[in-house]
Amino acid sequence: MKIIGIIPARYGSTRYPGKPLANIHGKSMIQRVCEQALLSQALDDVIVATDDERIYRHVTSAGFKAIMTSSEHRSGTERCHEALLHWNKRQEIPADAVINIQGDEPFIRPEQISIVASLLKQPGAGIATLARNIVTQEEIFSPHIVKVAFTSNMEALYFSRAPIPYLQGVEDAQWHKNGIHYKHIGIYGYLADNLESICSLPVCILEVSESLEQLRWLHHGHRIKIGITEFDSIAVDTPEDLLKITNIA
């Protein structure tokens, strides 16, 4: 299976304009994401998909690959789809699958990319993502942390900003001790045909209510395989987030 990693990178973030170019100890955030992605043995290629010339020039001047995409996309998923189409036109053998690596997670683990790639190789897996066991009460009840519930076959049942599952008769302060709550880690893998399909789906009320595009896919009958990772995701959404991670690099 030929798998490429695509890193969507917008300049015009509402909460943090220009964040892909933010400096983290001498390297831009997007450069750090590229370096981490290239450490994965599961990927045949790594490309940044952007709508901004500044990001494109920065990425290519640093020696990485980039593709210009439309500024009209509603999500990173749509940007990945366009980038895949451009990439395939240049190749003798098209990619079978894409892993969407978030451009604002400079410490993504190569192991996490490999887990998603392995899930895509399972029979019937069209979409794949990751989850991590939640161990703190704060994470369970934070609307900024997306939770996921899944089946015994490791397929997603639902994603929510609310605490799921609800624990009947258990005090809130004790929920994190039950070990059944999982945080969604926002890396996605798609078989090429599935990526094309989900980009044409109409928006559903669940997606609008929770502001989670993966609920659209579930609503329309797509299966999402879940892999478990012990590593957290560290996303940078605001300048304040950047200050918090400066001691990690």
Structure described in brief:
With 249 residues, this protein is of the alpha/beta class. It has helices spanning 29-38, 53-61, 76-89, 110-120, 137-141, 192-198, 205-210, 214-219, 239-245; strands at residues 3-9, 23-24, 27-28, 45-50, 65-68, 97-100, 127-133, 147-150, 156-160, 182-191, 224-228.
Describe this structure in words.
- The protein has helices at 29-38, 53-61, 76-89, 110-120, 137-141, 192-198, 205-210, 214-219, 239-245, and strands at residues 3-9, 23-24, 27-28, 45-50, 65-68, 97-100, 127-133, 147-150, 156-160, 182-191, 224-228.
- The chain has nine helices and eleven strands.
- The chain has two domains: 1-108, Alpha-Beta Complex (Spore Coat Polysaccharide Biosynthesis Protein SpsA, Chain A); 109-232, Spore Coat Polysaccharide Biosynthesis Protein SpsA, Chain A, CATH 3.90.550.10.
- The strands form three sheets. It has a seven-stranded mixed sheet, sandwiched between helices.
- The model has no long low-confidence stretch (mean pLDDT 92).
